[in-house]
Amino acid sequence: MNILYINKFYAPHVGGVETVTRQLAEGALNRGHQVRVITCNHSVDVKDQIEDINGVEVRRAASYGFFRNISLSPTFPFLYREAISWADIVHFHSPSPAAELTNVLCNVPETTSVVVTLHADPRTSRFKILTMAYAPVLRRLLQRADRITATAPQNIERTDLLDRYECKTDVIPLATEFEVDPPTQKERAQHRREFLGKDDEEPIILFVGRLAYYKGLSYLLRAMQDVNAQLVVVGDGELREDLEVAARDQEVANRVHFEGYAPDERLSDYYRAADFFVLPSIASIEAFGIVQLDAMAHGLPVVNTNLPTGVPFVSQHEETGLTVEPEDSQALADALNRLVKNPGYRRELGRNAAQRAEEFTEESMIDRYEKLYTELVSQGEAG
Question: Residue 118 belongs to what H/E stretch?
Answer without folding.
Answer: strand 113-118
